[in-house]
Amino acid sequence: MKYTITGATGHLGRKVVEQMSRLVDVREIRLAVHTPSKAQNFLDQGYEVVKSDYYDVDSMTKAFADTDVLIYIPSITYDVANRVLEFENALKAMQKAGVKNLVDVSFIADQPNNPFQMAGYYAYLPARLAGTKLNYAVVKNSLYADPLVPYLPELIERKNIIYPVGDQAMSFITRNDSAEAIANIAFKPYLRDHRQVYLLTQKQNYNMVELSRIMTEATSQEIGYAPVSLQKFADIYRAEGDGDELASMYHAAAMGLMNAVTDDFQHITGHEPMPMDQFLQQNYQR
Ligand SMILES: NC(=O)c1ccc[n+]([C@@H]2O[C@H](COP(=O)([O-])OP(=O)(O)OC[C@H]3O[C@@H](n4cnc5c(N)ncnc54)[C@H](OP(=O)(O)O)[C@@H]3O)[C@@H](O)[C@H]2O)c1
Predict the structure, then answer these.
(1) Which end of the chain has fewer CB within 10 Å, C or N?
(2) Whole-number pLDDT of residue 242
(3) What is residue 55's predicted lDDT score, i.e. its pLDDT?
């Protein structure tokens, strides 16, 4: 079998490679990467690395040759039209290369009334795939827990979480757990043989009162909850390049559109996902 992983040098991609390697021999894994120099460590470990650009169908067609299962991890572009174009190009390449099985990584924010700027892409995916001849599973991630760890020093300084989500809860999953589920779905045909759609979450969601309590315990620093307005939130993080995009996502959360919880992770892997308190306690360095 040949499993080809796109976006393999990214935050999630690296973990998917790691998890896939627990299930199959390294020779069965091909990494289709945008920037081969970022994959030197994988080359050193004996992985096959091929260049592949979502804007170059020919490069993807070559990269996808002989692939039994493709794991498509999208880029992080915040432009819906480009994200769709990247996926359309990948679909063309899959067809040309004769790829029949796809594990497609998606996101919780896919409802038709979701104001997150990228929701249009996530809403389009399952309907677009339904019109193809592919066997596929769509794997929706909830919010990654991981970025909360480097965010903690700022929250300690602010003494508060400031997410503009009111009393609403949000669902999370660690990237490691997401990758484990994705690798299992790719490896086990019965998990992707009837166009399954999964949502990966921890066992419970957290409102900001609960999250601030967990953060206080993990850091031994008092962190409360003082939500700012959506506009203020966008203004604070605009300099980092994605303030408006993030604000649109928390707008969705404030509408109760980011709080769904499932037991999909446990059904896929046979064990419970890592809860937030354990994750923050294990990863926060005092
Ligand atoms: N659930 C959440 O909370 C959450 C949070 C953040 C992001 N996400 C989504 O999860 C996905 C993966 O996130 P991540 O954190 O792993 O992102 P990441 O670290 O930026 O990884 C993205 C990967 O896509 C590759 N890529 C970018 N442009 C490409 C192109 N034109 N052709 C081929 N490959 C290209 C990148 O390679 P180069 O670096 O070489 O360009 C990189 O390997 C993204 O779609 C992102 O939107 C979800």
Answers:
(1) C
(2) 87
(3) 98
78 Cα nearest atom in ligand 1: 47
Question: What per-residue confidence (pLDDT) applies to 240?
Answer: 87
Cβ 143 under 6 angstroms from ligand 1: yes
Residue 32 CB-half CA count within 13 A: 30
Q: Of ligand 1's atoms, which has the minimum distance to the CA of residue 141?
A: 1
Give the single-character DSSP code of 190: G
Which residues contact residue 221 at a Cβ distance below 8 angstroms, ignoring those fewer than 6 apart? 156
Alpha carbon distances (Å) from 211 to 33, 127, 217: 36, 34, 10
How many other C-beta atoms are found inside a 10 Å radius of the C-beta of residue 35? 9
Q: At what angle do helices 119-130 and 80-97 cross, to 10 degrees?
A: 30
Distance of CA 57 to the CA centre of its chain: 23
Q: From atom 25 of ligand 1, which residue's Cα is the shortest distance away?
A: 7
Ligand 1 centre to CA of 76 (Å) is 4
- Both structure tokens of 141: 């991630």
| CB 55 near ligand 1, within 6 Å | yes
| Residues 108, 118 contacting (CB under 8 angstroms) | no
Angle of CA points 255, 257, 258, to nearest 5°? 120
Q: What is the pLDDT of residue 241?
A: 84
pTM here is 0.98
Ligand 1 centroid distance, CA of 184 (Å): 20
Which residue has the least CA distance to atom 1 on ligand 1?
A: 143
Which amino acid is residue 25, in one-letter code? D
Q: How far is CA 285 from CA 143, 154, 156, 221, 256, in A?
A: 22, 14, 13, 13, 32
